[in-house]
Design a protein that fits this description.
There is one protein chain. The protein contains ten helices and six strands; from the N terminus they run αααααββββααβαβαα. It has about 280 residues and is of the alpha/beta class. The mean pLDDT is about 90.
């Protein structure tokens, strides 16, 4: 229930855009931003303003050329920072740190033991560039575009996200999600999934991960319409969190890696806001 107490918790004081980082959020995020490369010119860009610009793009879905000039660095500077951090794995490293911190804040172990897997198909906008095999047709959802294939913990926080063609079925895409997962999450024991993962391809992928087992959560024949199913609703909620950002309501990107970076940024924004409360 939305109360005045909740309004005070979520109220964002000060000027600027609603997507801008508050002082508390920037204090939590700033130590995770890598310093300037040693030996070069000193960094002149205000990194807080650059992050605000990137989060503005994520939240509003506007094209890079439409980035407002007031309060943000030049769009070319923002774009170069976004790409540099993407190439060097900075976004993933920041999310890994925040994921562990948020789990510990909520009284959980830093590394999860159980997870839920599912995918979401996004319609691709007409665009240039990209690889032909990155975009495909999902016959089940009747969508031409890409899939966000996510493995999330029981809190709904992403463990691994893979972006691939919507033409790749879930049972085949699961192998990409589970590939070498033990190296990042050594105590992962159980993965819940829907009936679309009840296939030998998924069983083969799970068999490659020692001590990992798959549990299918099925709908019964007497279920009519929308029904909240145990465990499966968690990953659906995660996709709804992503969908709050207009950049992720549709696939606007030329490259699948760019879409994945914005998904990671959505998770970073979620974690920073929760940790700063």
């Amino acid at each position: 229930m939305w109360t005045e107490e909740h309004r005070a918790t979520y109220r964002r004081e000060g000027g600027g855009f609603p997507s801008n980082l508050t002082d508390a959020e920037w204090q939590r995020l700033e130590p995770l931003i890598p310093p300037a490369t040693p030996g070069g010119r000193p960094r002149k860009t205000d990194m807080r303003a650059a992050m605000n610009a990137i989060l503005y793009l994520l939240r509003t879905g506007c094209p890079w050329r439409y980035l407002p000039k007031d309060g943000f660095p030049p769009r070319s500077t923002v774009y170069n920072i976004f790409r540099k951090f993407q190439r060097e794995g900075v976004w993933d490293a920041i999310w890994t740190e925040l994921h562990m911190a948020l789990r510990e804040r909520l009284g959980r172990e830093a590394s999860p033991t159980a997870a839920i897997i599912d995918s979401q198909s996004l319609k691709s906008a007409g665009k240039r560039g990209g690889k032909d095999d990155e975009v495909g047709y999902d016959a089940g959802k009747k969508v031409k575009g890409r899939k966000i294939h996510a493995l999330v913990d029981t809190l709904g926080l992403p463990i691994r996200v893979v972006v691939h063609s919507a033409g790749i079925q879930d049972r085949d895409g699961a192998a990409q999600v589970l590939d070498k997962i033990r190296g990042s999450f050594p105590w992962l024991e159980l993965v819940w999934a829907d009936n679309g993962y009840n296939a030998h391809q998924v069983n083969a992928a799970v068999a490659k991960v020692p001590a990992l087992r798959l549990e299918i959560v099925k709908r019964t024949d007497d279920m009519k319409g929308f029904v909240v199913l145990p465990r499966r609703w968690v990953v659906e909620r995660t996709f709804s969190w992503f969908g709050r950002n207009r950049r992720l309501a549709k696939d606007w990107e030329n490259l699948a890696d760019t879409l994945k970076a914005f998904v990671t940024l959505a998770a970073i924004q979620l974690a920073v806001r929760r940790l700063a409360r």
